[in-house]
Design a protein that fits this description.
Two copies of one chain form a homodimer. By secondary structure, chain A is an alpha/beta fold. Chain A is built from eight helices and nine strands. In chain A, the strands form two sheets. A seven-stranded mixed β-sheet of chain A has the order 5-6-4-3-7-8-9. The longest helix of chain A is centred in the N-terminal third of the chain and has 19 residues. Chain A folds into two domains: 70 residues, Winged helix-like DNA-binding domain superfamily/Winged helix DNA-binding domain (Arc Repressor Mutant, subunit A), CATH 1.10.10; 113 residues, NAD(P)-binding Rossmann-like Domain (Rossmann fold), CATH 3.40.50.720. Chains A and B meet through α1, α5, β8, β9 and α8 of A and α1, α5, β8, β9 and α8 of B. The complex binds nicotinamide-adenine-dinucleotide (NAD) (2 copies). One nicotinamide-adenine-dinucleotide (NAD) sits at the interface of chains A and B. One nicotinamide-adenine-dinucleotide (NAD) sits at the interface of chains B and A. Chain A binds a DNA duplex through α1 and α3.
Chain lengths: 213, 213
DNA sequence: ATAACATTGTTATTTTATTAACAAGTAACG
DNA sequence: CGTTACTTGTTAATAAAATAACAATGTTAT
């Protein structure tokens, strides 16, 4: 099987995830086929882009019928998911952490939040939306035992660097950092950061531009 | 004043926001000058990129001394902020909405969350982290009265389209959508969407690739 | 049947973003 | 003072992403 042997462009991976999300909704609605321009419209992009992405993963639709929704979902799954799925831990079970756990819980079958970690004794050994919260001291132990490969960091910014370091030592493979603190991790660990303030400032900038202020 | 008359590239705007965040921290620590390679390291990018971004906003550092932290912060402010600031409303004061309000509150002087909206009577007229929650029915009225130009959508996905439509009617200028529901808004409204699941799936994909699974 | 049309798949082109290259110039040091 | 070393600013080159162009071909209408 040659499919997906080469690494896909960053942006394509993002869009595939988004396509799948909506394809699942289409499928639930009983829609069996979908055209590139329909997918495109949902995502505010061009049909060409959609076809190109789909080409890159080696799938073919049927002429004048479009893509088979179920087949496409399955193939995107083959690309994005691993067979046994990946296991995720959330470090910092505060407002954002709990909110993420609650949101995520039961969404994706192949990607599951299996543990929370917190330094506050009040939170330890509590269960949030079905996820057990462990003491931060047990990070390494639990990561190994539960076979966790991805960590989501939602501790206060001052703690983020320390948490990241311990995650790396514990053998984590990927980190999603929601704190505004920039992290330095070994290059073998895939790191992604998101800051909501940056998103909002970007919106503000373009609003300002549009208004000609 | 010619500065910033042309629209900056998307990515540059994002980075400027990030630079500022860390420059503020540097300033607080008493650091007065900073080199391009120092900024670069914080953000996992190259010094050239930093210099290029700074060039684009028309700022000049001093040779062998780097950039004046305070001046650079001020200039980025001139680019990203408006004089009187922009006012933001959060629609959906649930787990995520409250978490964002709490996080944002008192962070940025020029961008402030001034109102929450919710359809649940239990939440209406409560105050969350200093932000008054109004009934969703009052959306238009309050947006006009409070001069709100940006809306953050954190309602359940099924409600998102309706909320977006009403925001546009109410004259909002920019939307930050945290629901997984793709929205259609008038092209005059700047729309940005973020889905945490996509971020996580992207991390998972690259973890998978690295592992050679 | 045949023409007109719609839609895919793919290559070519354009645009945008990043990186490299290097001239210019200043601080620090002798 | 003169030299060395470093850092900026900018142009040029490269890479990545998006768009356009269009051939191929199945479908529908006549
Ligand atoms: N709340 C948001 O919407 C939001 C948005 C963007 C970014 N952030 C960032 O996310 C982070 C968390 O935000 P929050 O609002 O959830 O804060 P919070 O204070 O509610 O939660 C932080 C949690 O981390 C725990 N903690 C502290 N030190 C720890 C450690 N060393 N190990 C493990 N757990 C530890 C605390 O006990 C607490 O439960 C912050 O850095 C914030 O900047 C939050
Ligand atoms: N929680 C997260 O971390 C997270 C992460 C990513 C995305 N999201 C998305 O954000 C949205 C909200 O998530 P949540 O966890 O906060 O859910 P939630 O149920 O806690 O909050 C939703 C809130 O919206 C209110 N609401 C419902 N209909 C409304 C309407 N028409 N107008 C105004 N308010 C209305 C509800 O009363 C509730 O308070 C969901 O779409 C979810 O998919 C959440």
């Amino acid at each position: 099987m040659v499919i997906s042997s080469k690494t896909l462009p960053d942006k394509t991976v993002e869009r595939l995830s988004q396509y799948r999300r909506n394809l699942l909704i289409c499928l639930a609605k009983g829609k069996q086929h979908i055209f590139s321009h329909e997918i495109a419209q949902l995502h505010h992009i061009t049909p060409v882009q959609v076809r190109r992405d789909i080409m890159l993963i080696g799938y073919s639709g049927t002429l004048r019928k479009g893509y088979d929704v179920k087949e496409l979902i399955d193939l995107i799954g083959k690309i994005l998911d691993t067979d046994e799925g990946l296991r995720v831990g959330v470090i910092g079970v505060g407002n954002l952490g709990r909110s993420l756990i609650g949101y995520f819980n039961g969404k994706r079958s192949k990607l599951s939040i299996v543990a929370g970690f917190d330094a506050n004794p009040d939170k330890v050994d509590k269960v949030y939306a079905g996820v057990h919260c462990y003491h931060f001291d047990k990070l390494s132990e639990i990561i190994a035992r539960e076979n966790i490969s991805i960590g989501i960091i939602t501790v206060p910014a001052e703690q983020a660097a320390d948490v990241a370091e311990k995650l790396v030592i514990a053998g984590i493979k990927g980190i999603l950092n929601f704190t505004p603190k920039p992290l330095n991790v070994s290059p073998h660990v895939y790191l992604q950061e998101y800051d909501m303030v940056t998103s909002l400032e970007k919106v503000a900038y373009f609003v300002k531009k549009q208004a000609g202020i």
